[in-house]
Amino acid sequence: MTGAGVPLERSSGTPASFRDLWAEIAPIGRDPASGGYLRYAFTEPELALRDWFRAQAARRDMTVTDDGNGNLFAWSGDPWPPDTVLTGSHFDSVPHGGGYDGPLGIVSAFLAVDRLPRDAAAKVGVVAFAEEEGGRFGVPCLGSRLFTGVIAPDRAAELRDAAGVGFAEALGARPAGARPDLLGRVAAVVELHIEQGRNLDVPVGVASAIWPHGRWRFDFTGDADHAGTTRMADRRDPMLTFAYTVLATNKEARLSGAHATMARVTVHPNATNAIPSLVRGWLDARAADAATLDALVEAVTKRAVDRAGRDGTGVRVEPESVSPEVAFDARLAERLAGALGGVPILPTGAGHDAGVLSGHVPTAMLFVRNPTGVSHSPAEHATDADCAAGVDALAFVLGTLT
Ligand code: HGY
Ligand code: MN
Ligand code: MN
Question: Which ligand has the nearest atom to the CA of 89?
Fold first, then answer.
């Protein structure tokens, strides 16, 4: 058993390094064709990562608990001590996403706790939140939203994946929902994450804010008909309205300095020779402030509705998840950035579980440099040296919080 504060000895006799742990998880869920990861919540690869989490805890004689919502926690001391400090992230990925987005924060958390003195380590919980990407059940940060009560367990239980499997079925039980009994014991949260926006040119930074952002489902409806026999003038083709809305999304985002994307679409019946009756497109929209975001979504919606009038089609817009702006605890961010040697404090357009937690407890994020800024892509990468610097920074920060 390794007492906390003594880096985990490996069979080679050297302390466990970032490279050691990273090599253990890197192959899990990686698609050989794309090089990206297919780690959807509660599917075989993500379950394997949960087993890895339990094995890491067992190697450290840590106790593993869960909150009834699919979130895992590992404890060096008794679970949920008063003034708990939570640190971790998520295992799940977007389809063919990078390997660092999420797992970097969990691997770093175990290694950072290894560095803490026993009494400090006893206050820290390493956490793996469920379904942060919303890649399987459609609502991002589902685990942390359940834990904090931001989403009701009944709504979560109804969510279904593309195969019609419900979240409760995948979880194996109806989600417990809000856990104020546990959240009330948390004094602080620190999530370490790869930076995703090309804005960090030193190894480590601290987050200041998360842009307001959200997902809106656009249902474009029309008349199913024969592709070969229906005159162009007689068509009510929702694909046209969808295509126009994709272009309008891009235009409105450029005009307002926001970020907006329509990258996910389903077509019914999706046949080469049939004009569709339904096209569903998901708008991912983000902006530096709520007013810009609201105006963007309103403008895209208006352009879709106007175009539908011309195409003789229908359009219905359903907000699926909307996240308000997150301003992390400024004093905590400044204190940590200063203690880390004056590292940059920067915002992000990416959502995180830390953003959800920040509405309930003092929360900070550490960013690890991403040399290209590319993320949600097989090309996502961080250097071992920067990741090791991230572990050092996280260990230091946890030491100041415990
Ligand atoms: O989409 C996001 O902002 C995050 O990766 N879940
Ligand atoms: Mn992500
Ligand atoms: Mn992430």
Answer: 3
Helix axes of 103-114 and 18-25: crossing angle, nearest 10 degrees: 140
135 neighbors 94 (Cβ within 8 angstroms): yes
pLDDT in tens, 188-238: 999 999 999 889 999 999 999 999 999 999 999 999 999 999 999 999 999
Q: Within a 10 A sphere around the Cβ of 239, how many other Cβ atoms?
A: 17
Tell me, in angstroms, the distance from the centre of ligand 1 to residue 397's CA: 24
> What pLDDT is stored for residue 147 in this prediction?
98
6 pLDDT more than 50? no
Calculate the average pLDDT of the chain: 95
pLDDT digits (tens, 9 = 90+) for 335-347: 999 999 999 999 9
Ligand 1 pocket (Cβ < 6 Å) reads: 132-133, 140, 350-351
Q: Which of 39, 89, 132 to mutate to test the pocket of ligand 1 (most atoms within 8 A of CB)?
A: 132
* CA 341 to centroid of ligand 1, rounded, Å: 28
DSSP helix/strand/coil, 27: coil
Number of H helices, E strands in the chain: 13, 15
The reply to whether the predicted model has a pTM over 0.85 is yes
Nearest CA to ligand 1 atom 4: 351
Domains of the chain: 15-210+325-401 (3.40.630.10), 213-323 (3.30.70.360)
